[in-house]
C-alpha cells in the first residue's frame, strides 16, 4: 500500500501557522518579486481567485474582498516543511519526500498492523495539525498513481474530508469517475488534450482503455499510468524515489543589475543553491549551465548561456563558483540591464558509482562541503557562504508583503504575553 500526504495550499497555510488572526481570512501568496499568485487558500479560492495570474490584474479584486496578501517567505516554508516531514516519517519506516509539501509512504507487509487505512489517515492528519498547524490531505492506494488520485479526492472532492482510500474496484471507480483526466499524475495538458479528442475526459475512462493501445497512441509512460490506475504496479519504489536528473536555481532580480560584479555575485549564489541540492540527493555534477538575460520585453533582448563541463564530476560549491568566474566575461555585456540569471546542473551522476581518475587530483573535498551544509542547516541558510556571493545583495528579489521569518530570524521569534 502507498500513501501520499500533501499539505493543503502549503504556502498559504504556512502563512497562517504563526498568525491566528488570518486563519479565517482569504490568503494568497505571490511568486518571486511579487509577480504572480502562486498559492490560494480554500477561502480565497471560493472567491474565484485563480493561481498563476499576475498580481496587478487581480489587485482590485483582492482589495474588494479584503484578501490578505503575502510575499513568498521561503525560509518559513522550508522550516515548516521539515517539521511536517518529520511528523509524517513517524507513521512509516519507508518515506520519500517528493516535494516541499508532498511525501510518499510505502507500507510493505503492514496488513497485520493496520486494519483500517481510513482511520490511520485520520491519525496522520491529526498529528500534523497538532504539531505544525498545517492542514493536509492523505490518500492511500495500491499503487503510487492511485495514492496520488486518492490524495486529490481527499483534498478536492466532496465527501472525503481529508482522507481517501483506493483499495477496491468500488472505491477506485467512485473516485476516478469524479476526476478529470488531467488530474491524474503523469497526464499533462498536451496529452489530456489528445485524450479528449479520443473521447477520454475522465480518469475512469482512461483506466478502461487497453494499455497496449494507449502505448501505441501515446507512450510507454502513459501505458504505465493506465496500468497503475488498474492496480498494477509499474513504478517501482526506487523509480518513485529516483533522484532528479537536472537541478536549476534561477530567479528574476528585484531591480535590474548592470555591473559585472553584481552579476557574478548573483550567479555564484545560484551555484551555491544548486550545489546544496545536488549534495542532498547524493549526486555529482558533470556539466553546469550558466545563463543570464535581459527582459524579453526590452527593445533589445539579450540572452547568453554557456554549458561548462567539469573534467571530474563535482559537488564542490567552490569549483562551481570558479566555473562562474571562468565564463562571466563571456556572459556579461556592458550596457545590458540584466533582468534574470541562473545556474543549472544539467548532467548529473550518482556519487555511488563515480569512477575516479588515477592521474587527476580530486578537488571535490566532500568533508568541507558536509561541514558547510551542517552549519547552515543548524544555524540557518547563508550562515556560512562564499565571499563571492557578496554581502550587499541589491539584486535580491522584491518582497513587499513579506511576513516575519518566525523560525529563522531572532528578531521575528513570536512573543507571548501571559
UniProtKB/TrEMBL annotation:
GO molecular function: damaged DNA binding; DNA-directed DNA polymerase activity
Annotated TM spans: none
Cellular-component GO terms for this entry: cytosol
Keywords for the protein's UniProt record, in alphabetical order: DNA damage, DNA repair, DNA-directed DNA polymerase, Nucleotidyltransferase, SOS mutagenesis, SOS response, Transferase
Keyword check for ATP-binding: no
Annotated UmuC domain residues: 2-188
Enzyme Commission number(s) of this protein: 2.7.7.7
One record GO biological process: error-prone translesion synthesis
PANTHER family found in the cross-reference section: DNA REPAIR POLYMERASE UMUC / TRANSFERASE FAMILY MEMBER (PTHR11076), PROTEIN UMUC (PTHR11076:SF34)
Family listed: Belongs to the DNA polymerase type-Y family.
Name of the featured protein: DNA-directed DNA polymerase
Native source organism of the sequence: Colwellia psychrerythraea (Vibrio psychroerythus)
